[in-house]
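fyi for ur records
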Amino acid sequence: MMTQPRRNMFFQDVDLESGFETRGDGNSGISVKVLSSDLDTVARRGRRTRLLRMAPGSETPEAHAHDYWEEIYILEGEMIVQDGTDGEKRVTTGAYAAREPGVMHGPVRSDSGCLMIDFCWYPDEDGG
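which gave:
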């Protein structure tokens, strides 16, 4: 896992097939590859960038919210989401979502699988 605090990272190849690890929440169908992170959910500071892969047929069990900002961009495939706006919605490659802290979302599932990138962060003390 390539984990680094906020510092310059110069362009490098990212292997989209290997190096993914089970997310750790008991759902073996969702795996992650952290690209950079100093996210500290206890101290409520930092940022994280990671790839998430949902295997075909995987799903999250329930709606949830985070206490940090989250942005997601679908790189490949599709997933079905419930995001609190208009029931279930199928999103595909190129779809983007941004969520403020505390916004409920999910559950999500993917019938054929998907790969996404997510960016999570706590605002800096100066609001940035």
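The CA atoms of residues 65 and 102 lie 5 Å apart. thats all i got for now
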